Amino acid sequence: MLNPFRKSYNAEELDIFRFLQKATLFSELTQDELYNFLPYLYLRQYKENEVVFFRNDPSQALYIIQKGQISLSITLSDKTEYLTSVSTHQTLGDNSLIPNAKRIYNAIVTSEVAEMYVLPQANLLAVFERDARIKAKMYAALSTSYNQYMVNLFKAYQSSFGFFDLSTAYK
Predict the structure, then answer these.
(1) Of 69, 70, 152, 153, which sees the most CB atoms within 10 A?
(2) Mode of pairing for the β-strands spanning 42-47 and 113-120
(3) Which of 49, 46, 23 lies closest to 114 in space, CA to CA?
(4) For the domain 11-158, what is the CATH superfamily, name and number?
(5) Cyclic nucleotide-binding domain spans which residues (predicted)?
């Protein structure tokens, strides 16, 4: 049954909702829940080789990739190791959902141009304060992603047993 009091959204808002729902962190949110983020999202354009953030920087924003490709790497002792590339509908800086977190990898644009929606951590956490359901849904999505990372880590460890001391991950 049609609810005449239900909020209606314009075409631009609906496009942003559809886009956000393709990103894992936002996939379980309703349009009404996604609407809470609209005032805080801003679209930023990056150029090739531009740094989005470095490892150990404060994690102060979440990035949702609309267009382009970003390389994730880690630098230790002046040696950089490539981790993966991410692109459209994927997010960067997922740990911005965690207060006082630091970046765990470098993020550098590898495509000619990249466009990302940026959601500042302060605004993200303010939405969480106002709506516990949104917070719960997004933390559940984050937990699922982190669980998959752990599964992948253990598979990598098993395939190269003894390459590193896995017990250090639990300290």
Answers:
(1) 70
(2) antiparallel
(3) 46
(4) Jelly Rolls (2.60.120.10)
(5) 25-145
Domain extents in the chain: 11-158
Specify burial of residue 116 (Cβ count, 10 A radius: 0-12, 13-18, 19+). buried
1 pLDDT band, cuts 50/70/90, is very low
DSSP string computed for 74-121:
EEETTEEEEEEEEETT-EE-GGGGSTT-B--SEEEE-SSEEEEEEEEH
Task: Give this prediction's pTM.
Answer: 0.87
Type of residue found at 77: S
Average pLDDT over residues 88-116: 96
